[in-house]
Design goal:
Porin, 16-stranded antiparallel β-barrel, about 450 residues, alpha+beta
Amino acid sequence: MRQFINSGAVALALLAAAGPAQADEAALKAEVEQLRAEVAALKDAVHEMQTQRSAVAAVPVAAVAPSATVTAVPVAGTAPAPAQASAGGEREATTLWGYGELNYNHPSAHAADAQADLRRAVLGFSHSFDESTHVYGELEWEHAVTSADDQGESEVEQLYVEHALAPNYGVRAGLMLVPLGLLNEHHEPTSYYGVERNFVETAIIPSTWREGGVAGYGSTEGGLNWNVGIGTGPDLGKWDATADEGRASPLGSIHQELQLAKARDPSLWGALNWNGIPGLNVGGGVFTAKLGQGNTELPIDDTRLTLGEVHARWQSGPFDLSGLYTRGTISDTRAFNLTLLGQPTPVPKSFWGGYAQGAWRALEWDRSYLATFVRYEQFNTAASYEAQPQGLGAAAMPTQRVWTVGANYYLNPNVVFKIDYQDFRYDAAAFGYGARFDLGVGYQF
């Protein structure tokens, strides 16, 4: 069509140049005007065809099939986004995302204990009921196989309804992650350095720690984000003094995960984060709850957990620096621990931990990059016990120190390969020294 228009223009020019030698002036003018009219008509026809083609291409899929569409959430390390408007103006009601990781651990001094594990696979979803109301959920499978004879687990990690009361604040109700630390709410493998999650935010602040309840959230124009809530809490009646789970993570051994959770004694939490300077996050939070949960068989009715933490992270150019300190106490445990005499794991009075971490994006090309990092941690899951009669008390656990050096290679922002080396050091000579070599791969979509 365009070639025909161009040919007409050339013909017009030749006729104009031929002059009165080939036709009289009146006839020539008539033919020129006729050709101009035909060229203009052809241009109008081409424009109409292009307009129709653009209109067909712009028809949204929802106009053809009115069912809800499913899309991926490609942003790593962030909370799931509400449904977005499509190019045709229709809202996508349902979104789908997920993440997973496979790890290999090789203790240097105990090669026979080396193991590979499909650590976890998670499938998440959200649904938009309208512009203000959404539901979010995550389903998780751990250790590849779930059955009565296997160590795998299947669980609901999150499930809550969120309603925005205004653009900058709202409420949530359901099973939610407790907003403490840097890791608990952002625990995808693409969001942290190293094959395994750091020890402080696993042993002291259990990951992933979740409670059922109601919470309010919001932000200010100055960059202050807040979250306050009331919900279920840990149950000290679940404490097993014969096992080592309480030494590995005091709170991890007694949190209820909203599984037929005892709920006589509610918990309270609050968290603040300030992001007023680009790349900087400074914040902290507090969680407190009575742990008795109406248990009349054990002397735990007055026991109370209080856990607080402060953290900071600065990301500028290729550098990523972060640090965190957390400390927890469980009060009024003396009477309960007297019932556990002779058992290896009494309830601690205090536990704490902290780390400092630095990372550097050393190489970058296309969408891939290599980040190296070093992290130093100190933590103690039983730093003290309440006083007991002479000869009956338990000695405090030694403070554990861990150096971790390694690298994250991001094939793209949502696929990461990891390698690290961890050196374990303890205060007590009885624990000796140890090291571990780790490999991992993780993804998020």
